[in-house]
Structure formats: C-alpha cells, structure tokens
Amino acid sequence: MTLNFLDRIAQQYGNQLPFVAYRKPNEEEVRLILQNDQELHHVVDYRESGFIFAPFNASDEAILLKNDASYSEILNTEKTSENSDSQPMKDDGAGKAFHLGLVQRGIHEIKAGNLDKVVLSREVEVSTSKDPIQLFQNILSLYPTAFCYIWYHPKVGIWLGATPEMLLEMENQRLKTMSLAGTQKYLGEDSPVWGNKELEEQQMVTQFITDSLKDKIKLLTISETMSYRAGNLWHLKTSISGMTTPEIGLSEIIHSLHPTPAVCGLPKLKAKDFILKNEKYLREFYTGFLGELNFKEEVNRPSKRRNQENRAYRTIKNKTSLFVNLRCMKIHKNKLTLYVGGGITRESDPEMEWKETCDKSRTMLNIIRS
C-alpha cells in the first residue's frame, strides 16, 4: 500500500527518525525530506548539502538533515484568512513585569551609548491536545505567504513555524536578501503609517546588511522600502541583491549576516552579549535560520547553436534558500513553547514593546486555536 504524504510524515515521526516538511512563501508544493537514521550531523563549512537548522548563537553548531529520501506534493489544505486573529495570552503579571524591566535595561544601554539597538524576546508556554502534524496543517492553511515548516530530530526535538523573513537566497553566484523590521498590527488598511522608531529601526538593519556585503558582493542593488504584510502584522521591507565573487564562500556571507540586527541588534557582538546575559532563557533555534543548503537542480535549456535548435543541454544550479526562524514554537509532549520579541531603540516605549510581543504571539496562537 502506498503511503500518502502526511502518512509518510507520521510514520517517520513514529519511528523517531529525522525529517522536515516545508512550503516556501507563495508556493503550493510542500516538500518532505527524510533522513534514514538517527545520527546528528552538523554543518562544518557550508559546502555540505542538506536541510540546515541553525541556532541563534552562531557559536553553537548548526544541524544538517541529510536528504536520504524526498517527496513533494500539493496538499489540499482548507484555506483560512491570514487575518484570522485569536486573543493574546493572558499573563499573570510576573512575565510582563520582567519583560518591561528587560526593555528598560535595553533602553538604558542604548542611551548610555553602549548599544544602538537590541532585540529582546520572551517565551510563552501553552498546552494543546493537537498533535504536531495537525498543527503543521493549520500553519499551511493560515499562512500561505510565509515559509512554513515542521522539523524533527529525536536528539533535538520538534519545531514548527511560519516565518516571513528570508535570510538569503543564492543561485550559483546570484544572491538575494532582505531587511525586515518595524511592526504594526494589520487593521484592514491598505498601508500603515510608520513612525520614526520603526523607520529608524528599518534603516539600521538595511545599513548593516549593505555594510556587511559591500566587500563581498558586486552589483549591489537596494530596493525602495515598502510595507509588507505577514499574516496579521505589517513590517517594513527592503530587498537587496547582487553577485558574489568567486573567492567569497557561502560560509563567509552567512557569518557576516547572522544574526542580523532584525533579531539581535547593533553593534552585533555587544547586542548578542546583552541578550545572552539578560533574557534569562535560551533562545535555542528561535531567531536562528533554516532551509535548503546547496541543493542541486538540473535545468534543461534549448541550445542556441545553429543546426541544434531542437537539442537541449543541461546545466546544474546550486541553490541555497535560508529563512530566519521567527514566529516559531517548540513542542515537548503536550506543552508548546512560543517565542516573541521586538527591536528596542532609543525611541522605544516598554509598554508598547510589550504590546508588540502580544500581537506577534497571535501568529502561533492562531495555529493552536484554529
């Protein structure tokens, strides 16, 4: 009997074998990668091929899922409006008080001249009776414009997410990336009005990325900044593209970008140190990145040579598509850990930053309550 797509996922999960299923933004096809043993592989030099799952702290090792078998299918999930909006989690007060204090410390460091920006986050724990595959189906239904995934390794755990942010995309030597910052709740409007805080935050992220790439990329192109809707949230988005030089490897580009100011802050090392010392929980893979690493794709092209009009020649594309692991959750038995955060600048107000994390929590809460 032939297994259907979701049955393959369930069987792999039941056998405690690693897998990832994912759908890229605005695509219909869901892809499934299976690893046939429980070995925990790590990325060494970014020349490997497989599905990468990398942590926030670049000092920790990134995990590589081997592509021992792969499948793809268009799943007939019931479409649900991306504006579907659940109520935020009610907090007992202690969590809010801690986060307000954390934000205030971040603002103090900025005003003291030690930081320009820092991204501060918190975790939210909820319970559910839904199994992970049900939750993944909900993600696919709710968020067609996001990178949606379910990832599992028996030695690490199971994670799901719907992230709006691309870290980078490379096809041979051509690179694309984006800066994504600033957040407002979607209220049905065609486009939001942005304040100085959000515009400043977006400019910081864009400047960091262009500065990081200017010596590694030629023909660097920066788009105009636009409002970008992701589910029930608006963000500011700037697209950046160019061509890598042959002597610059993927590892060097990734290490220069990750973690970006959109998930860490500026200066990068000082912001990261502040986060690790003050958030009082481990982000693990939240605000890390994930995706296809050095996938080979064969392309048949018609020959342009005279007398060979009907013949074709084959070229191999080397493709990498990586996404920042935002709007995600970790599952342990029937307990879910959700992660939410926001960028803190000199203009930040602690109460508004708290509200922003509540708005962002709805992305994952919609999945649980759908």
From TrEMBL:
It comes from the Bacteria. InterPro entries: ADC_synthase, Chorismate_C. Residues 102-298, 317-360 form the Chorismate-utilising enzyme C-terminal domain. This is Chorismate-binding protein. It comes from Arenibacter antarcticus. The lineage of its organism: Bacteria, Pseudomonadati, Bacteroidota, Flavobacteriia, Flavobacteriales.
